[in-house]
């Protein structure tokens, strides 16, 4: 199930896309963020700290904008941070 971020996501410059209405996150077993050194640190979208170390899970972050646009991102998140987000009844999102 998707979970709702209580605060705007960290580590992403989504402002260049538009006005954010909400952001949700769900786990995924199908994808993993690329291990590409220049991309480090891998910011956890929930807390903004580096999630490249241990205790991270692959997640899909969905950003929804006032324009109706949705953008899905694959991210590492801390398991603890993910679990602290509020559950919704919405099915998991996937990469589009
Ligand atoms: Zn975190």
Describe this structure in words.
With 96 residues, the protein is mainly β. The protein contains one helix and five strands. It has a five-stranded antiparallel sheet with strand order 4-3-2-1-5. A hairpin with a 4-residue loop joins strand 3 and strand 4. The longest helix is centred in the C-terminal third of the chain and has 6 residues. The radius of gyration is 12 Å and the shape is globular. Zinc ion binds next to strand 4.
Q: What does this entry show, briefly?
A:
With 96 residues, the chain is mainly beta. The protein has one helix at residues 79-84, and strands at 3-4, 20-27, 56-65, 70-78, 86-87.
The gross shape turns out to be globular
Sheet having the most strands: 5 strands, antiparallel
Note the gap between the termini. 17 Å
| Approximate helicity band | under 10%
| Ligand list | zinc ion
Our count of domains comes out at: 1
> Strand order, biggest sheet?
4-3-2-1-5
Tally of contiguous helical segments: 1
- The number of distinct β-strands equals 5
Quaternary status of these chains?
A: single chain
Radius of gyration: 12 Å
Q: Helix-strand pattern, N to C?
A: EEEEHE
């Amino acid at each position: 199930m998707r979970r709702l971020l209580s605060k705007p996501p960290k580590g992403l410059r989504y402002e260049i896309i538009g006005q954010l209405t909400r952001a949700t996150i769900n786990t995924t077993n199908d994808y993993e963020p690329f291990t590409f050194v220049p991309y480090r640190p891998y910011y956890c979208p929930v807390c903004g700290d580096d999630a490249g170390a241990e205790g991270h899970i692959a997640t899909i972050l969905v950003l929804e904008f006032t324009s109706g646009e949705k953008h899905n991102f694959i991210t590492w998140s801390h398991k603890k941070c993910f679990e602290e987000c509020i559950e919704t009844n919405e099915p998991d999102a996937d990469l589009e």
